[in-house]
Each structure stands twice: as C-alpha cells, then as structure tokens.
Amino acid sequence: MQTFETNDPKLARRCRYDQHRGQKTAVTVEGSVVTGLVHSVMEIEHSQPTRWIITVVAKPRIAA
Fold this sequence. Notes:
globular; alpha+beta
C-alpha cells in the first residue's frame, strides 16, 4: 500500500474516477511508478492550496 500527497487536481480527479470504476491506475510517486487499485482519495480541508491524500494498493508481481 502506497500513500502520497498531491496538490494536482487533475491527478486527484483521475484517481477518484479509477477508484469509482474499479480500474487499475499508474501514478508516479517520487520518481517511481506505482500501479494498482486506488483505495482512497481524501481531500485535506482548509488547506491552501488544496491537497489530497491518495492511497494506492499495489498489485504484487507474480513471477512467470
């Protein structure tokens, strides 16, 4: 499970849509790509600029 904070409204909206649809998403966190299902998108109230905390559950890779 990967948790990160962003102030990008487009990223937050895309993650919220993917969470609603149950689709996998790929986001870049500190230079590395995390792929998995979005667990939660929470807006931090009363912050300037507006920020969101996004939690992604990474899918474990299975060796072939």
